[in-house]
Design brief:
Layout lengths: L4 E5 L7 H9 L15 H5 L13 H12 L6 H10 L4 H9 L6 E5 L8 H12 L4 E8 L2 H14 L9 H9 L11 H11 L5 E5 L6 H11 L25 H19 L3 H4 L7
Parallel strand pairs: 1-2, 1-3, 3-4
Helix pairs in contact: 6-9, 7-8
Protein name: Sulfotransferase family protein
GO molecular function: transferase activity
Keywords: Transferase
Length: 283
């Protein structure tokens, strides 16, 4: 059986993380836990993410959770999240327990909010697992920053998080124009620098969302994790070359200065982004 491995995927949000978790979870020997996103470290350590903190469950749910733990049964996900948020020292033992089960060697946490974790928190996670002979590997997927921001805005609109009298263009400029309010997610260059401060490059799989679902990238991801490749899981290859954005004319140019450093940082590390990211030509 392969060496025990914990995959930490800090996003990026709107960049294929749901697919990544599903793909890894379907691999032989994997148990990714009961939640799509654990939301433990971001809620507990990043003030801007404190809204992810779970309220205390009712007494009967807590009692049920205690029984599930006692008898090794699968817990309710939201109660588990609350339990881990209450004391982050429980986090590593929980996942180590999954890896102690017969035939299980792979687990992980795919939470886009972890892009905001500090170097200290990332190091604490790595050291905690290393003390149990569990290797932490990073998977981080990056989408064209402006396209990702537009996708995020559309999600806000679907979830009624934007004022009805505010057009998409106005809302986008409010968040992302130079001097705008931004979001609680840090820029790519910030997250990448923090990851580099803790994890050597051979324990980082950093790739582009725009070719995540291609057979070549799926095979590379599988080799990195140590699981059998299933290229068919990606469906048709994604071809994002060229500027086929749904953004209103001129909007990308107005917000580009807010994202310029991310384009510069990622193109230096992944030059293929120049062809795959619709707005990279503005650099």
């Amino acid at each position: 059986m392969p060496a025990k491995t914990f995959i930490l995927c800090p996003g990026a949000s709107k960049s294929g993380t749901t697919w990544i978790r599903t793909y890894l979870g379907d691999a032989p020997g994997a148990d990714m836990g009961p939640l799509g996103e654990m939301q433990v470290w971001d809620a507990a350590t990043v003030p801007e993410k404190a809204h992810f903190l779970m309220p205390e469950p009712p007494a009967y749910r807590r009692a049920e959770f205690a029984l599930h733990r006692r008898f090794g049964l699968k817990p309710r996900g939201k109660v588990l999240r609350w339990h881990l948020q209450q004391d982050t020292n429980r986090y590593v033992p929980y996942f180590a327990g999954l890896l102690d089960r017969p035939g299980t060697w792979l687990t992980g946490d795919v939470t886009p909010g972890y892009a905001a974790l500090s170097v200290e928190t990332l190091r604490r996670i790595d050291v905690g697992f290393a003390a149990r002979d569990i290797t932490v590997k990073i998977v981080f997927t990056l989408r064209d920053p402006i396209e990702r921001a537009w996708s995020l805005l559309k999600m806000y609109r679907r979830k009624s998080k934007l004022a009805d009298d505010l057009s998409d263009r106005e809302a986008f400029l409010h968040f992302f124009a130079p001097g705008g309010t931004g979001t609680t997610d840090p820029d790519y260059h910030v997250t990448l620098a923090r990851l580099d401060a803790v994890f050597p490059r051979d324990r980082q799989f950093v790739t582009l969302y725009e070719h995540l679902f291609t057979p070549r990238t799926i095979s590379a991801l599988s080799d990195y994790v140590g699981i059998p490749a299933r290229p068919e899981a990606g469906g048709a290859p994604v071809n994002a070359a060229g500027d086929r954005s749904a953004l209103p004319d001129g909007l990308a140019a107005e917000v580009f200065p807010s994202f310029a450093r991310d384009y510069e940082t990622v193109l230096a590390r992944l030059p293929e982004a120049a062809a795959l990211w619709p707005h990279a030509h503005m650099l």
